[in-house]
Amino acid sequence: MFKRWFESSSQDKGASSNGSRPAGSANRALGLMELAEECERPVTRLAPLECTTKAADFEQIYQNAAVKPPDLPYSILKVVEMLGSPHLKGMTPDAKRCALLMALDAASVGIENLLQDAMVRQRALNDYAEKQQEKLSRYEAQKAEENRTIQAELDRITSQYMARIQANVDEVARQQDGLLAWQKRKQEESQRIADSAAYLVPEGNATHNNGLTAVLERASQARRLA
Q1: Which site in 48, 96, 139, 155 is 20 to 30 Å from 116, CA atoms measured?
Q2: 75: three-class secondary structure by DSSP
Q3: pLDDT for 149
Q4: Is a pLDDT exceeding 90 seen at residue 176?
């Protein structure tokens, strides 16, 4: 049975080989224009690396390997196929081994050649996996560098706009301080006016510590009593 299987496989292999705006709106528009200009500034970029998660199929990996599998009538992949056959299903490992060795012996297949084929294919897979990992590592490093460049540009723009925001806050604080200072001077001026007006009230009613309203009330009261 296994000999016919090998012969059939060999034949199949041989056959297949052949308007006007308000000032606030204008300022906001100007700020948006500046932000757009900042965002459009060219950012230094590295030459892109190609990276794809789609790996080559195994046969392509074997054929493109530095050391290609030996050209054998029956490869280690045939052994894999045999062990997956329903004819061997349910057998113990020892029974499978005996059946496999009998079939290989009947087909005059050397065990050493199969082991060599297995080693070459495994090495091809490992080399391919290592190259893919190196390729991915380079791609990750490049993207990380791009992200650092973008972050630096973002930090620079953010710093500029935060400085403008802080300047606005400081200007509001200066205006508030100016108004408070003026209000203090206004209070002093009002007090001087009230103190001066108090001298215009009859002497018995003069009180230098009262406000102008109280002075005027006392003056009105004095006129009524006159």
Answers
A1: 96
A2: coil
A3: 96
A4: yes
